[in-house]
Amino acid sequence: MNEKGQQECLKCGECCKWLTFSVSIPPNMFARYLNYYKTHGCRIIKVKKDQGHIALMVPSVCHKYSFGQGCVVYNDRPQLCRLYDGRNDPNIRCQMNEEKT
Ligand code: SF4
Ligand code: SF4
Questions:
Q1: Does the N-terminal or the C-terminal CB of the chain have fewer CB atoms within 10 Å?
Q2: pTM of the shown model
Q3: Total domains in the fold of the chain
């Protein structure tokens, strides 16, 4: 990530605010579970009713994220954060992609 990208990340922080999970659900309970997760602010990103699972994003702000400053440990952030690039994640509204449109 170049310096411009780093500045965008410190302003944006979208990918610091979600956790993604795959969850198994009994086929006859799909509607109830989807409603349950949606009312908790989750984003449903994949529904595989025939295979009995969904993928969802749960709102969860990293404890190193500051709404005023962005990541407060940016220069020492974990390796996973360094490797991740929101531009390649179709489920994240990455600021760097938004600017292209
Ligand atoms: S969503 Fe994109 S711009 Fe925003 S913090 Fe993540 S990688 Fe950076
Ligand atoms: S450590 Fe920093 S870059 Fe990583 S998720 Fe938390 S706030 Fe975001």
A1: C
A2: 0.84
A3: 1
